[in-house]
Structure formats: C-alpha cells, structure tokens
Specification:
about 45% helix; 4 strands; four-stranded parallel sheet; about 130 residues; alpha/beta; 4 helices
C-alpha cells in the first residue's frame, strides 16, 4: 500500500497561483550596490509581463530608519527574512550584478533548496557554471 502524497504549503501556493492565472513572479536578488541595475531588471521583467519582487531598502544608503547602528543590524535581519519570503513566493530568481557576496550566495542556496530556477544577468558569476 502506498502512502498518501504530502501536500506542502509551497504546493498549495503554486496551485493557487496557477488557478488565479498569475503571471510568473521573479525575485530579484543581488548586492544592494546594484540597486540601479535591479531597477533596470525590474523594468525589463515587468515589460516581459512578469511580477517582480526585489529588495526595497538599501542599507548602504543613508536613511533615518537605519541611521542607528543597533537598529540597522536588527533591520538587516528582518529584511533578510522578508527577502527569503519573496524568494518563496517567486517562481524564479534573477541574480543581478557581476559580484556575489555572502548574503546573495545564501539567497541562491535557499532558492536552490526550493527548486527555483535561477537566472543571472552576468552568467560568469553563476557558482554552478
């Protein structure tokens, strides 16, 4: 006798998006030093009729929300968790930039663990290439 197939929350999400007829969702990942390139990738992906989610804050640029180093450190943890939720929501990941740091490397590994397809604006930085 075979055991029943376990339906994961990720399976339910994918099925709901399919039933709703959602366009593909792309999570843009990369160092915030590439915020301008992320904005350009957003335009291109949106023109291609894809929903785009990407980092919304650049902690390297001055802002009152992260001017205090202690608050900035706590916010960084929260934003990393939020971005992983964006990756989970997405159908695929687009890594922007010609450099991959530790945070982006972790996001790529997370996306791989979820079985998400990954594209690169600079294929030479693909760790699997």
């Amino acid at each position: 006798m075979s055991s029943p197939q376990v339906i994961t929350p990720e399976d339910l999400l994918a099925e709901a998006k399919r039933q709703l007829g959602f366009p593909r969702i792309v999570a843009i990942c990369g160092s915030t030093r590439f915020m301008a390139e992320m904005a350009e990738a957003d335009v291109r992906e949106t023109k291609a009729r894809r929903i785009v989610v990407k980092p919304g804050c650049d902690l390297k640029s001055p802002h009152e929300f992260w001017s205090d180093p202690v608050e900035a450190a706590a916010l960084k943890i929260q934003l990393d968790e939020l971005h992983r939720s964006k990756i989970l929501l997405a159908d695929e990941v687009l890594v922007v930039g010609d450099y991959i740091g530790d945070s982006t490397r972790g996001e790529i590994e997370y996306a791989k663990s979820l079985g998400k397809p990954i594209r690169y604006t600079h294929p030479e930085v693909d760790p699997d290439a």
